[in-house]
Amino acid sequence: MTALDTTPGAPGTTRAPRGASPLLRLRRVLVPVALLGLLALVGCLSLAVGSVALPLGEVVDAVLGARDTQAHLIVRDLRFPRTLAGLVAGAGLAVAGVLLQGATRNPLASPTLLGITSGAGFAVVVTVALLDMPATYAVVAAFAGGAVAATLAIGLASTGRDGLSPIRLAVSGALISLLLSAWTQGLLALNEANADEVRHWLAGSLAGRDAAAVPPLLPLFALGLLAAVLLARPLDALSLGDEAAVGLGQRPGRVRALASLTAVALAAVAVALAGPIAFLGLIVPHLARFLVGGRHLDVLIASVLLGPVVLLVADILGRVIARPTEIQAGVLTAMIGAPFLIRIAAKARVAG
């Protein structure tokens, strides 16, 4: 019996195994290279563009160590930390979306729609703003809050005769998110001292990030990416259906649990750094799947690069649209993601 090369389709679909076409194999190589170049370009723009525009030469000098200049203060103290946070948060949310869509076989699954970002944000507000605990506890609180919110959303969506349908999951996640958002606003009303700062963070923003906050989160972020890569083949098998996955030697329940925990961990890192960025984990996996096909390893590689691109572009646009003030990146991703969600939900309803 020979092994078959499977090329799964979008979440929620089952496609017959077949070999990848030469064009698809070429796309799997060229698209990541192009995205890497695009990410480098956007990263440079993130350091150069803002309320004070800097020539590229001054940016390079500031990065390489020219001190005691205005460019150094702007780049090293303000823009470099927010760019670094955007790289990690964008990649974390994008990979979390890939894992959740693969684990649930649901095109609407994402950290936002499962209530993970709202749960994580609520837990961080309770920990940092209400209990006045150190910010180092933020990622632990975000992980716990995201895990509880996702469990509630999936449990609520699983009730009833129809089972875990895409629409039910979206509605359940929206209900959990609304409930947690209301509780969050209530807590902020009781603690006005930290309300303004926390509300700015809850909108999803890279502004005011501290570069020192990123290194402690990198081990968990790296472990999450490694786990996602190891889960790629099991998720490919899961996309063919539970019976087929069992026949290929996989345990669907364990794969779903590991993928969900990894997604919550990555989303927790992102929320701790940038706040609840809306819809990024929904948009990027679909764009990546369009570019490189349905194999999860290819989608993960593309999403790791495309997620930071989308988040940093939103952050750059937010700096220049309303100068001298800024629009939070999370506001712009929500504006883009809402119509994207409606389109995917309509397609899922027709397919159902």
Question: What can you see in these coordinates?
Answer:
It is a multi-pass membrane protein. InterPro entries: ABC_BtuC-like (IPR037294), ABC_transptr_permease_BtuC (IPR000522). Belongs to the binding-protein-dependent transport system permease family. FecCD subfamily. This is FecCD family ABC transporter permease. This protein is mainly α and 352 residues long. It has one domain: Orthogonal Bundle (ABC transporter involved in vitamin B12 uptake, BtuC). Helix content is 71%, strand content 0%. It is built from 14 helices and no strands. It has helices at residues 22-48, 56-64, 70-104, 116-130, 138-158, 166-190, 195-202, 218-230, 232-238, 242-247, 252-274, 280-292, 296-321, 329-351. Mean pLDDT is 83; it is low at 1-7.
**Regarding CATH, which class?**
Mainly Alpha
> Alpha-carbon distance between the termini?
34 Å
Q: How would a crystallographer describe the biggest sheet?
A: none
Q: Helical element count?
A: 14
Task: Give the total of domains.
Answer: 1
Low-confidence stretches: 1-7
Helix content bin: over 70%
Assembly state (oligomeric): single chain
Average pLDDT across residues? 83
- The computed structural class is mainly alpha
CATH topology (fold) name: ABC transporter involved in vitamin B12 uptake, BtuC
Q: Shape from CA axes?
A: globular
Strand content: under 5%
What is the CATH-assigned architecture?
Answer: Orthogonal Bundle
What gyration radius follows from the Cα positions, in whole Å? 20 Å
> SSE order, as H and E?
HHHHHHHHHHHHHH
Count of individual beta strands: 0
